[in-house]
Design brief:
Aspartate Aminotransferase, domain 1, about 15% strand, 14 helices, globular, about 375 residues, alpha/beta, Aspartate Aminotransferase, domain 2, 2 domains
């Protein structure tokens, strides 16, 4: 069986973990935590990065930084992971789901403005498959309506929009280092604070509501409970593993793009035969090879194709079930208009095995051709 994901090991992860143990620092905020934050800041070109135990945690911190209140509305796509909505529903906010574009599967920027009300506080964009949303238009809408912009860049590290790193353009960016991501540490994430006025409070919320970071910088004589917060910091062993990955981020991305490009070429004839549609990458977006997916022609049953692929030794999978039609989405969220593209895409999309060292493209294609016939 060709596995869907095989977490990549660069080579220095275990020696870094041993070094962290030798340093007798296993809790967070050790040398590797600081190194990871510096690497992220330099690679993403963001003023400030904080490691978190997940992208979910980073999103939750943004809900505190924006001082959200029950009844506030947050515009977002429905075609995303549950954390994108949960982070704000936990505050009593209402996710307002907007349809996606048929080409990039990102939020349709042309539908955002009509979803804005006097209760709207923020727009959360999700850069699907490491391909950027149309950030210039979205940032302009947010500026005109005085809204926050949060980039859920869980899939977007080392990808860019018109030369700007994903996660660096909104008020906040959120990264994931889950084992299924290009750069990983099993479980982990990062909050990118792109406006300096939020940095101090982000540190406090991140540190359980204390001014501990200021204390260790010598800015206060003792640290105290000064605000709301929680335990969002990963341990130093996690950071040690992640540091090795971050140092190889560009090489990892290059390898994944090679694998992605090979998939893209070998599936060309299936697209020409109108069996599938391949991913569409706008010319001004540089993606990172995070996901390779195909959209089946609607005449095929996606579940049947997946079963046939599995029977032929290929572990391909579907992706998100739309949030707006899920039990919790119906309970906590609302939609402005029918999400026709979201519902259509979610029933047709198949993701294919994608990991460093993958060379079995032809076998995957043969299995898919057999399933389609």
């Amino acid at each position: 069986m060709i596995g869907f994901n095989v977490p990549y090991i660069c080579g220095d992860e275990l020696s870094n973990i041993q070094s962290a143990h030798n340093n007798c620092i296993l809790a967070g905020h050790g040398p590797f935590t600081k190194k990871c934050c510096s690497l992220i800041e330099s690679k993403i070109k963001t003023p400030h990065a904080l490691l978190t135990n997940s992208c979910t945690a980073a999103l939750e911190i943004t809900s505190h930084l924006m001082n959200l209140r029950p009844g506030d509305e947050i515009i977002m796509p429905s075609y995303t992971f549950v954390s994108t909505a949960n982070a704000y529903v936990l505050k009593g906010c209402i996710p307002v789901f907007v349809d996606i574009r048929h080409d990039t599967l990102n939020i349709n920027q042309s539908l955002i403005e009509e979803a804005i009300t006097d209760k709207t506080k923020a727009i959360v964009v999700v850069h699907y498959a490491g391909v950027s949303c149309e950030m210039d238009i979205i940032l302009d809408i947010a500026k005109r309506h005085n809204l926050f912009v949060i980039e859920d860049a869980a899939q977007g590290i080392i990808a860019s929009y018109k030369g700007k790193s994903l996660g660096s353009m909104g008020d906040f960016g959120c990264l994931s280092f889950h084992e299924t991501k290009n750069i990983h540490c099993g479980e982990g994430g990062a909050l990118l604070t792109n406006k300096k006025k939020f940095i101090e409070r982000a540190e406090i919320i991140h540190e359980k509501g204390t001014n501990r970071s200021q204390f260790f910088r010598g800015q206060v004589d003792k640290y105290r409970w000064v605000d709301i917060g929680s335990s969002y910091l990963p341990g130093e062993l996690t950071a040690a593993f992640l540091a090795a990955q971050l140092e190889e981020a560009e090489n990892i991305t290059r390898e994944r793009l090679n694998i992605w490009n090979t998939y893209h070429e070998i599936f060309r004839d299936l697209e020409n035969a109108e069996f599938v549609r391949r991913p569409i990458i706008p010319h001004h977006c540089q993606h990172n090879g995070h996901i390779y997916y195909l959209l089946l022609n609607k005449k095929f049953c996606r579940d049947s194709i997946l079963k046939k692929l599995k029977a032929n030794g290929v572990n391909a999978v579907f992706h998100y079930q739309p949030l707006h039609s899920s039990p919790a989405g119906l309970k906590y969220g609302r939609t402005k208009s029918p999400l026709i593209v979201t519902e259509n895409i979610s029933e047709r999309l198949i993701r294919f095995p994608m990991w460093i060292g993958f060379k079995q493209h032809e076998r995957v294609k043969e299995a898919l051709q057999s399933a389609l016939n």
